[in-house]
Each structure stands twice: as structure tokens, then as C-alpha cells.
Amino acid sequence: MDYYIVIPIHNEEAYLESTLNSILGQTLLPKKVILVNDNSTDSTETIINSFSSKHSIFQKLNIISTTQHMPGSKVINAFNKGFNVLDENFDFIVKLDADIILPKNYFEVIGSHLKKEPKLGICGGFIYEQNDCGEWILNHPMDKDHVRGAIKAYSNACFNAIGGLKNAMGWDTVDELLAKYHGFLIQTDLTLKVKHLRPTGKAYNKKAKRLQGKAMYSMRYGFLITFIASIKMAAKNKSIKSFWNNIIGFMNAAYNNAPYLVNEVEGKFIRQLRWKNIMRKLYA
């Protein structure tokens, strides 16, 4: 199985070397790794230069977008620019974060899953983060069938069917919804334990708080599904503020007629799928 990796990078001097070494240690190496240096102001580029000069699989791409580390737009803008320098001769494409450590067999297992199941579109492991005692514990996702945005692998067919990654908050949810819309499967593997060196969202600024609600609007959830999802998220985060941030973000997006990420037919499919999952969990 041939694959490419694209890594959006912004000021990752503390973690990048560990991430790149974990790629070099893979039992199945990638054809190419595009290291997209997005306006870093620390020693990130020096680290990139060191690896790219020693190992031909690494290729540097410098871009300048914004100094703000916003979820969605900055990261996917960098990913898309990195992806654009690649050809389409791959079995799967990987969007990877620059602050993780992969198990040595990560991509060998991913490739095996994709090879066995032709309709498998998105695959990945699980994120583990270090607690105050130094223990690596599972960072529980809202949905165990969801592949986290930091470690996503897409089959060539699926990536093309969904039109690539959306340059907006919510990209790592709408990609899976659109994959299902096009008949692809999503698979997670509990044996693939990925160490996340920086807890999720620590680098994001305060402006990001209401983007989740905007994302729910842009995916055409509608108010009621957004309301229910926001309650669930607030319970998981143990924060009533996250509920209100979501609702305000949704209402602001509606008031400003924010653009949708999906068309009406896709939106109808997404709402039906969400209601089906809500009912299934309600009566489980």
C-alpha cells in the first residue's frame, strides 16, 4: 500500500522531532511526507531542514497564512497546499498533526485494513494524552467510531468522493458524514494507541470557542440537533459555558447567513443520520 502524509506545522519546535522520528520508525514507510511550515516563528524550520536534508521522504513547503492558530481554517489551508504538490498515485492519504507519537506499526495496520475492505474510506487509531500523574490515558471521543483529526487516513477513492477536506471548523466531522453519504465505511482500531503530546485545543485562542456551533450550522444540523449535541458536549466537558458558546455560535452563523459546507441533499442525509444515532443511543 502506497501512501502520502501531509503535516500542517506552526511553531511545533517542542514536539516535531518526536513526530518525525515516529514516522521514520514505521514498519511501512510513506512515499513522501510534506512538511508544511505555516508561518512558524520558532525553530520549527530548522528541525524541518535537518530531517529533509537527511531523509528523502521529507519535503518542506513554506507558506504564510495567519499567526492565529484557529481550528479548521489554518490547519486545512496548510494541508490543502501540501496536498496540491503531490500526485494522485497513492492508495491512501494521511493528515497528521505535528505533536504526536505513532506506534511503529500504525500505517502497516491502517494499510491492512484498507486493503481488506474496499469500501473502507476513513481509518485511524485512538488518541492518548498524559494526565497529571504522567499516565497515558485514552482521550475519550464523543463517538468511538470517530477518527480524530490528528491521525486521519483516507482511501484515494473516498478522499476524491468527498471533495477533499473542507477549509473550516468541523472539517473532521463533515468528512466522515460525507464519506457515509457516498457509501464508505469508517473504522477505528483500539490497538493503535497514539500519544498526543499537547492536550487538544491548548493552542487555540478565545475566538475559537464559538466555532463549533458555527460548524453545526454549516453542516445543516438544524437547531434541535445542535441543541442536543451541545448538551452532550457540555456534559462531556463538564462546562455549561461550552453549551452556550455552541448555541451562540450557531445563532450568529444563522443571523449572518454563513455559508454551508454541504448541499441540501447532503444536509438531509446528515440530519437523518444524526437522528438515527440519537434514537439508537436513547433506546439502547
Automatic annotation (TrEMBL):
<dbReference type="GO" id="GO:0016757">
    <property type="term" value="F:glycosyltransferase activity"/>
</dbReference>
<keyword id="KW-0328">Glycosyltransferase</keyword>
<feature type="domain" description="Glycosyltransferase 2-like">
    <location>
        <begin position="5"/>
        <end position="142"/>
    </location>
</feature>
<dbReference type="Pfam" id="PF00535">
    <property type="entry name" value="Glycos_transf_2"/>
</dbReference>
<dbReference type="InterPro" id="IPR050834">
    <property type="entry name" value="Glycosyltransf_2"/>
</dbReference>
<dbReference type="InterPro" id="IPR001173">
    <property type="entry name" value="Glyco_trans_2-like"/>
</dbReference>
<protein>
    <submittedName>
        <fullName>Glycosyl transferase family 2</fullName>
    </submittedName>
</protein>
<keyword id="KW-0808">Transferase</keyword>
<dbReference type="InterPro" id="IPR029044">
    <property type="entry name" value="Nucleotide-diphossugar_trans"/>
</dbReference>
<comment type="similarity">
    <text>Belongs to the glycosyltransferase 2 family.</text>
</comment>
